[in-house]
Specification:
Layout: E1 3-7, H1 9-27, E2 33-37, H2 41-57, E3 63-65, E4 97-105, H3 109-121, E5 126-134, E6 146-150, E7 158-162, H4 164-167, E8 171-175
Parallel strand pairs: 2-3, 2-4, 4-5, 5-6
Antiparallel strand pairs: 1-8, 7-8
Length: 176
């Protein structure tokens, strides 16, 4: 059983900068964009992207968090999950382009839950998905719009994203 680092701090920064540029380019600017991070690490990534996009565009890009706990389809199997905060920026999501931000895309079930949670809050004009690491193994027909790193992995391997704000270090590791 071994662990190897696949992304270091500079790689994560480069990936987030590239994703931020791609979001701005595909949307033709930042007007009407709202970034919503999925707790826990998706929120930190969304805040970093907001700062990068704000630097590029010269205006602030609203950022918030979207807790998906109560919308998950595995609560019966893992009932100990405690809900986190949902913080929607002023102006809400109605008629805006919401970019959901998360650290790892695996089965797609968290994103399905996020879409349900978002529907309970409002009606965006469009929803996009930005992911730091896409490891495959989808169980639902969900595909990210923006990906930092495609990381093919075996189903039994574990991908860990660690961020300085939470874990004291920026790195992505894969454990076999």
């Amino acid at each position: 059983m071994g662990t190897r680092t696949v992304l270091h701090e500079a790689d994560i920064t480069r990936a987030l900068t590239r994703i931020s540029h791609e979001v701005i380019e595909s949307h033709r600017g930042v007007d009407g964009i709202v970034l919503l991070g999925i707790p826990t690490r998706g929120v930190t990534l969304a805040k970093r992207m907001s700062a990068i996009m704000s630097d590029i565009a010269g205006v602030s890009v609203p950022v918030g968090s979207l807790d998906v706990t109560l919308f998950r389809d595995d609560l019966a199997r893992q009932p100990t999950r405690s809900p986190g905060p949902t913080e929607i920026p002023s102006g809400g999501v109605d008629g805006r382009t919401v970019v959901l931000v998360d650290d790892v895309l695996f089965s797609g079930r968290s994103i399905r839950a996020a879409l349900d949670a978002l529907q309970s809050i409002g009606r965006p004009s469009a929803v996009r998905l930005a992911i730091l690491v896409d490891r495959g193994h989808r169980e639902l027909p969900i595909r990210p719009d923006f990906v930092g790193k495609n990381l093919p992995s075996a189903r039994e391997e574990r991908v860990h994203v660690r961020l300085a704000e939470i874990d004291g270090v920026d790195e992505v590791t894969i454990e076999s």
